[in-house]
Design brief:
Blueprint lengths: L13 E5 L10 H10 L6 E5 L5 E2 L2 E2 L13 E4 L6 H11 L3 E4 L10 H16 L3 E3 L5 E3 L18 E5 L2 H13 L4 E6 L8 H10 L5 E6 L5 H14 L2 E5 L4 H11 L6 H11 L2 E3 L2 H12 L10 E4 L3 H13 L9 H8 L19 H14 L5 E4 L25 H26 L3 E4 L7 H14 L2 E3 L2 H17 L8
Helix pairs in contact: 2-3, 5-6, 6-8, 9-15, 13-14
């Protein structure tokens, strides 16, 4: 537990969902589904509120918030904006600690009357010592506490905290990185930020003992100086990656209508990140890939020498171009290393230059090749294909699957895919530890059986192996990590 004043928000003893809909087709019913999926009700109070129902999803439904058992620490507001002020009064009377407004249609509309309604509600909550998240947001995901705002989120806690002004982007980040093996300590979608704002959350992340990596999607900052100071505190002690939305005129207009944010210039935001020691992701792919980079052994890259092992001639040419374009190098292997490779790799149909193209010796030969390449003096990182079951007809050291998926019972197929993923990620992790050189796995969709690829990404991240879908994205991430480290000169070494 943290001593930060925001910490109680993330550990509520009971949650009330006020305005839970009677229809399963209503989007806001998803909050209840997500909490049940996380098992929140197994150790906490979970109280749906709707005067038109007495039961929902096996839970007793209460007429009003005031009718729910005590204590209720956290309220999720699913009511329309016109009803929200009345709910605020009930929260004050009930003595709750925090309220999340999924409720929209307030300040983000730009309507002066609705702006004033939001202002008065927040003022009333502050006077009562109640913190507010939103309005117009998805709220909290805290797997350790059993909180979630969408279905399908991982139930296991992790070490990454996400701060997002957008609920949709937050969901995409959690789902996308979750499929790649990342697990989250906390995620907050804070929308309009009428009370709890971005700088509050960066300040919290800096001191949260469960968080080791921080990433964020931000559209605008209500207080530039507080934002800079909070990001600076956070980035000094934890890798901090920020994607800024609203950098173009079109994006700025969209941000203003989305969360009421006034977006600043890219130059100012870039300067803030540089001075604070954070890194500005240019795209959503960059945000995902950089999180994978700092969460795995890729963060230890020390030089620009890249070895590419496997893939074929034409693929090797384009890959070498992609690596060089990212600002890295594909240096020739030393003659001594090539001589060691030629001891078991035939001359015909292969290449022991860099990139290395060989399937000689099957899986054992590939492991031997990778070890020799990683030990070569000019090599700082190795990019390679993991040894996984291949799609029918696809070449590679993993070989074709021993039996088609539809020929095996589902349980046996799942077990085989998991064993293959664990074995392949473990082999690369062992090489990474033995050589001290980062290994990066490349998953080319047309080659690797889909189920094996999905399982491998999960296992690889857990084992400390970065995994990317293309050489371009792998090389770009590695180059960005090196630039980021250089920019942090004078700050604590985090990676």
């Amino acid at each position: 537990m943290s001593t930060h004043p925001l910490d109680p928000i993330f550990h509520p003893r009971a949650v009330a969902l006020v305005g839970v809909p009677s229809s399963d087709n209503d989007m806001s019913r998803g909050f209840l589904t997500a909490l049940l999926e996380q098992g929140y009700e197994q150790e906490h109070g979970l109280y749906p509120v709707n005067p038109k129902m007495t039961e929902v999803r096996g839970l007793r439904c209460y007429p009003t918030l005031l009718d729910t058992p005590d204590p209720v620490d956290h309220v999720i507001s699913l009511v329309p904006a016109r009803v929200a002020p009345e709910l605020v009064e009930q929260c004050v009377q009930k003595g709750v600690r925090s309220i999340h407004f999924f409720t929209a249609g307030l300040a983000e509309t730009g309507d002066p009357e609705l702006i004033e309604v939001e202002r008065r509600m927040i003022e009333r909550l502050r006077d009562a010592g109640i913190r507010a998240i939103g309005p117009n947001c998805m709220g909290l995901y805290v797997p350790r506490s059993g909180l979630a705002f969408m279905g399908g989120f991982p139930t296991e806690p992790g070490n990454v905290m996400l701060i997002s002004q957008s609920g949709a982007n937050a969901g995409d980040i959690i789902h996308g990185l979750g499929r790649r093996g990342v697990r989250f300590s906390k995620a907050v979608s804070f929308g309009n930020g009428a009370d709890v704002r971005a700088h509050d959350l960066f300040d919290y992340a800096a001191s949260d003992p469960d968080t080791e990596i921080v990433t964020a999607y931000i559209e605008g900052a209500q207080d530039g100086r507080k934002m800079f100071e909070a990001v600076k505190r956070c980035a000094a002690v934890k890798p901090t990656i920020i994607l800024k939305g609203g950098l173009t005129a079109a994006g700025a207009r969209a941000a203003n209508s989305h969360t009421g944010s006034l977006a600043g210039s890219v130059q100012i935001f870039e300067a803030m990140c540089r001075q604070a020691g954070a890194y500005r992701a240019e795209t959503m792919d960059d945000l995902h890939d950089l999180v994978i980079g700092v969460a795995t052994g890729a963060r230890h890259i020390r030089g620009r020498g890249v070895a590419l092992v496997g893939g074929g001639g034409g693929f090797a040419v384009l890959s070498a171009d992609a690596i060089a374009t990212a600002g890295l190098e594909v240096p020739p292997l030393p003659e001594a290393s090539k001589a060691r490779l030629r001891e078991f790799i035939p001359l015909a149909g292969t290449s022991v230059n860099n990139p290395i193209d060989t399937n000689a010796g099957g899986p054992e030969g590939m492991l031997r090749t990778l070890g020799i390449v990683a030990e070569a003096a000019p090599i700082d990182v190795v990019i390679t294909n993991p040894m996984l079951p291949r799609q029918p007809g696809a070449p590679g050291p993993g070989g074709p699957p021993p039996a088609a998926a539809d020929e095996l019972p589902p349980e046996e197929h799942d077990e085989r895919m998991q064993r293959a993923a664990d074995r392949a990620s473990g082999q690369l992790a062992e090489l990474q530890t033995e050589t001290g050189v980062p290994f990066v796995a490349l998953l080319r969709g047309r080659e690797v059986e889909g189920d094996a690829a999905d399982r491998f990404q999960q296992a690889a991240t857990a084992a400390g192996i970065a995994c990317y879908p293309t050489v371009h994205r792998a090389a770009r991430t590695l180059a960005q990590l090196m630039v980021w480290r250089a920019r942090r000169e004078g700050l604590p070494a985090l990676f």
